[in-house]
Specification:
The structure holds 2 protein chains of 2 kinds.
Chain A: E1 9-12, E2 18-23, E3 33-37, E4 44-47, E5 61-66, E6 69-74, E7 83-91, E8 96-99, E9 103-107
Parallel strand pairs in A: 1-9
Antiparallel strand pairs in A: 2-6, 3-4, 3-7, 5-6, 7-8, 7-9
Chain B: E1 3-7, E2 10-12, E3 18-25, E4 33-39, E5 45-51, E6 58-60, E7 68-73, E8 78-83, E9 92-99, E10 103-106, E11 110-114
Parallel strand pairs in B: 2-11
Antiparallel strand pairs in B: 1-3, 3-8, 4-5, 4-9, 5-6, 7-8, 9-10, 9-11
Classes of the chains: A mainly beta, B mainly beta.
Chain lengths: 108, 116
């Protein structure tokens, strides 16, 4: 089955740029979606189809996808961005949605 | 406004059954795939199952195949998850989500605890 690998944690100072990676075999050929989940809340879609943003999501959130790595980039990080972030793809070989293990973003 | 509201969670003994419901509003329910996703306490997200608009296609994660059944009633704008032969490892918050090639809307979840 398809596996997505994320770093368990990323730390960044306010105002800096956070980059969260999602690794998978030839993930560049898939559409990657990213979700933000704050404690006690449901996940929220922040980037879809590699780099598109739903309405209401700040432009500070962006995404890229190439080769074996997809990346969620959060510019000018704010304390309110502190959350868990998950990547997701559809694995057509198994007809399964697959989530990465999640990355905890800490704003120092 | 799109709203998804889950219900039906609770405490159940191992081997028992539970039926979760997800009431949808604010969009044409019958036009969308729907999914269930769960999250064990302190753990990450795990997709459980999804279902096509007319119920003709259903997919499941391997760990629940043969035990869980996803279904929908488009006349009632409702999604269901029948869970049988429950195990301790099924303990989780269960979310329903609108599946548009990504999960663009999620409910707030319902907690299922499997314990004796």
């Amino acid at each position: 089955s398809y596996v997505l690998t994320q770093p368990p944690s990323v730390s960044v100072a306010p105002g800096q740029t956070a980059r969260i990676t999602c690794g998978g075999n030839n993930i560049g050929s898939k559409s990657v979606h990213w979700y933000q989940q704050k404690p006690g809340q449901a996940p929220v879609l922040v980037v879809y189809d590699d780099s598109d943003r739903p309405s209401g999501i700040p432009e500070r959130f962006s995404g890229s996808n190439s080769g074996n790595t997809a990346t969620l980039t959060i510019s000018r990080v704010e304390t309110g961005d502190e959350a868990d972030y998950y990547c997701q793809v559809w694995d057509s070989s198994s007809d399964h949605w697959v989530f990465g293990g999640g990355t905890k973003l800490t704003v120092l | 406004e799109v709203q998804l509201v889950e219900s039906g969670g609770g405490l159940v003994q191992p081997g028992g059954s539970l039926r979760l419901s997800c009431a949808a509003s604010g969009f044409t329910f019958s036009s969308y795939w729907m999914s269930w996703v769960r999250q064990a306490p302190g753990k990450g997200l795990e997709w459980v199952a999804n279902i096509k608009q007319d119920g003709s296609e259903k997919y499941y994660v391997d760990s629940v195949k043969g035990r869980f059944t996803i279904s929908r009633d488009n006349a009632k704008n409702s999604l269901y998850l029948q869970m049988n032969s429950l195990r301790a490892e099924d303990t989780a918050e269960y979310y329903c989500g609108r599946d548009t090639g990504k999960l663009d809307y999620w409910g707030q979840g319902t907690l299922v605890t499997v314990s004796s």
